[in-house]
Write a structure and sequence with these properties.
Blueprint (H helix, E strand, L loop, with lengths): L2 H10 L4 E7 L5 H11 L2 E10 L2 E7 L2 H15 L10 H6 L4 E4 L7 H4 L3 E5 L2 H14 L3 E3 L11 H12 L21 H7 L4 H13 L22 H17 L4 H17 L2 H17 L3 E4 L6 H5 L29 E4 L17 H10 L12 H11 L33 E4 L11
Parallel strand pairs: 1-2, 4-5, 5-6
Antiparallel strand pairs: 1-9, 2-3, 3-4, 7-8
Amino acid sequence: MTPTDLVQAAKACGMSALGLTDHHLLTGTIEFVKACKDAGIQPVIGLEIDLEQGSLQLLATSTEGWSNLCRLSSTLALRDHPDAPCSLEMLFTYSKDLIALCEVPQGLQDGFEDRLYIPLRNVSSAGSLSAQARNLGLPTVVAHPVYYQAPEQARLQKTLAAIRLNQTVTTISQTALAPADAWFMPSQIIEERFKEFPEALQATIEIADRCRFDLPLGNSQMPVVPLPEGVTAAQHLRDKATVGAIEIYGEITPQIQTRLDHELEVISRMGFEPIFLIVEDILNFARATGVPYSSRGSAASSLVAHCLGITSPDPLRLNLYFERFLNPARVTPPDIDTDLCSRRATRSSSMSSIPMAPTRWQWWERSIATVRVLHLRMSPRHTDWNLRRYVNLPINCRMPGGHASKNPRRVKTHPLHLPTCELLIPLISPSSMTPKPS
């Protein structure tokens, strides 16, 4: 079940807004936002993380909030123990323009103030949670968890959980599975279940309004690079390239000047100066700290990259064309492929693996958040083999849609699409909130 499937389910139910809060990841967000826009549904972008007191859902109210979700997700993933609970200090560092939903809100009031809600996920605990919210002076909101689309898919979710945890369906713990009734309920059913908590139902509309913003898609979002006062990125890059050219060639000949002017004009027109300045900064630090590196690929065709010390081959001596790397017809940012010595890395994630000085590392953390998008799909033979393992079937048993075989590579079956989201917050449409006569 993909984010697109979930959006189509919301559209069929007449919902005006839909929230997605994957656990620790934002890999389904872009597909989710695009699907919502195509369906005329407002996307509410979120993230679920773990605290010492339990799970916490965070919802972005602006592009700054979205950036903080990216930073928080990346920071959690780069820790030595990624599955450890997030500290309140780290959470508050990235809490701007985020709404928080937590059943145990102690310690969160100071960091979120009027952006903290207690979620009601099921009717059995709604009464006690509402009483707790009143005592703390906090609002409640209905947040029904969704892990699959239809009730009959509960067994499929169990199988997928077993695969994820490398267990079998007979041994997996109940706590590792989705909550009961975690299917995509129509808004009418949710309203009926929580009819005694009208404020919590109304809060879904309030949150949807607070989380209304357009996520810019399809445009390059370059980080803001620290620059000398009064100097633009284009001028700063030109100055660095000029200094580097003099160091390499001794003087700037008309041929060198013409080539530099051409490359810098193209780079500036496309707004890609930060790419060159960032990579140069990283490699300068690698050189200063003795981290071996090697740049490769089409970036070697750039004289600017060569003058900045990013690449080693001389593009003038080797007669390499800059257009092979970057040309006015290209709309996507260029790739500067650089390999860093893994033995000198303090972290396992490429750009963040350099043991950077504290001040420099803090700047990178504030400016860059990398979101890795994984499109999880299993091939037919791996699907068949995994299903046999986790449901305790013999290898030569016939599977639905396939053929019995002792060799799992010869079994033909349909690919298993792994869901890319774990929790949705259905938001009731305003039209469905019309008070009913008593």
